[in-house]
Amino acid sequence: MPQTGIQKVDYPVIVIGSGPAGMNAANALAFEGISVLVVDGSAPGGQANTSHSIENILGFPKGISGPELTTLLIQTGLRDGVQYLMPFRANRVRYDEASCIFTIVGEDGESLTCRAIIIATGVQLRLLKAINAAIFYRRGLEYGSPEQHRELWTRMSVGVMGGGNAAAQAAMFLSSCEGTKVHLCVRGESLKDSMSARVIKHLNDAANVDVLLRTEVLETLGDENLNFTGVRVKGPEGERVINMQSLHVHIGAKPHTDWLSGCVELDPKGYVLADSFLPASSWPLKSRPPFERETSHPGIFVAGDARFGHDVHRVQTASSDGVIAGASAYKYLEQACITPQLLEKKTA
């Protein structure tokens, strides 16, 4: 990840999170000539980076993999001057009212300063609550999509747990591997509850995908050497054991916002409240209402899956949310806290 020329102070905007929401927010601002730093505690791309094939992005009729999309977003950002600092895991935010400056403190104590913040930290995958799940983690039980090398999964019995599009995409990729049988365990009553019609058609057309509705994984199984051998499930016909060599889990997520408690208003589940979802008592300014995607703290914005009300979890919606947050941050800088960089741009 390129990190050359990183300054530590006085960025107009720092984006926390490098998924599609964060990347698009940064690129929207950089395209307008605003200096932007993107930070993330892990590798770039967010959850989208783990997807084998994203098929619902306009302009990619054959689909595009998550890593390919991430690479294109980074290349576009670099073209327009976006800078990246990874890993940097934000731990808390301080604000100095006199100077109108935010300080973002990392877990290692390192600090960055800026005039506006965009939170795009997304969500964390939920863990499987099955007997022995922790024991077999990375021994056959994995969270997220399988490695994108078909030769690893040929002539195997594999499982996928989850009822959303991410689980379906993992199942479709595995089903394309020669001689592989896929068991898709879905807790819901129907695929229509959480999958698009196009994805459902793909699954129905795949002869080697066994869709198990109303099915819960109760226990992960293995031998005396801790080699993963299968799962015990409970479905409409009772309990049974399914032999498999791996299980890939996609059972939802929770917002990655614990570190923001006390800084911005969160809902009971940890999602960040913004703009029209903010209670009137949470907005401190009488001079103006919050901008779109602005949180209870003026100058802090949120985009993507971490935002309350962002109910359609797609790359496109996260991307557009990021663009909106970037535009609002630009307005904030112009109207509330103009930086030297902006003054130079306006008078150039």
Characterization of this structure:
This protein has two domains: 11-125 and 253-347, 3-Layer(bba) Sandwich (FAD/NAD(P)-binding domain), CATH 3.50.50; 141-249, FAD/NAD(P)-binding domain (3-Layer(bba) Sandwich). The two termini are 32 Å apart. It has six helices and 17 strands. Strands 1, 2, 3, 4, 5, 6 and 17 form a seven-stranded mixed sheet that branches. A five-stranded parallel sheet has the order 8-15-9-10-11, covered by helices on one side. The chain has helices spanning 20-31, 66-80, 165-175, 197-205, 315-335, 340-347, and strands at residues 11-16, 36-39, 83-85, 90-96, 101-106, 111-119, 123-125, 141-143, 157-161, 181-185, 209-212, 216-222, 228-235, 238-243, 246-249, 253-255, 300-302. With 348 residues, it is an alpha/beta fold.
Please write out the topology:
Blueprint lengths: L10 E6 L3 H12 L4 E4 L26 H15 L2 E3 L4 E7 L4 E6 L4 E9 L3 E3 L15 E3 L13 E5 L3 H11 L5 E5 L11 H9 L3 E4 L3 E7 L5 E8 L2 E6 L2 E4 L3 E3 L44 E3 L12 H21 L4 H8 L1
